[in-house]
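Subgroup meeting minutes
Present: P.N., E.W., G.H.
Scribe: E.W.

1. P.N. recapped why we're keeping a running log of single-chain structure predictions: easier to compare across weeks, and new members can see raw inputs and outputs side by side.
2. G.H. added today's entry (230 aa).
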Amino acid sequence: MKRFYKEADAVPLECGGHGVALDGRLVRTPAGRSLALPSPALAAAVAAEWAAQGEEVYPRTMTMMTLAATALDRVAPRAREVAAEIARYGETDLLCYRDTAGSELARRQNAAWQPLLDWLAEAHDVRLEPVAGVMPAAQEKGALEALRRAVDAHEPFRLTALHTAVAATGSAALGMALIGGRLNACQAWQCARIDDEWQAKRWGEDAEARKRGEALRDELAAVERFAALL
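Output recorded in log:
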């Protein structure tokens, strides 16, 4: 769409929180809700995205705005459902499925993934057990209940960041580690890509796989930045 404003500014809201104004008019979410943000830093980042647009406005380039609107329009109204979706990833978490014991791939998986499962157990009492192979293996009920409690503790904006990371990587453990500051976006990306990188090393990487990897890298970087601004 055509740019219809000159100035974009972060502003305090009368109802509390922080918003963004375009030529003095408050920005609303796609669903028409007030863009009430939890921190001045996030409001400034969203305002900067609006200000950086040229003659045309491209919403897909405004990742902080997109995540903020998602939190308000899609996550906050159904936070418990979103938390349940995240917790279900623990049943088939990427980090729990390893190659045959003793293989080079299994060694790489164990070195990168097991410390994160150990951290999850220590930090949140979530004890997910790894298995060899790709066939689904049931996790202990207590571990899944502990994961649900840990996820439930996140408010809607942080829950949005967590859901995005978990859905992108296929791992609740990896998402929790990223949002919890146990590792950064680059490290999370490397962990999520171990299997893909192994296959690429053996068979070569095609253009589509490369694009998917780049998209995942960018998405995790956006999630990390969003969480840091809250």
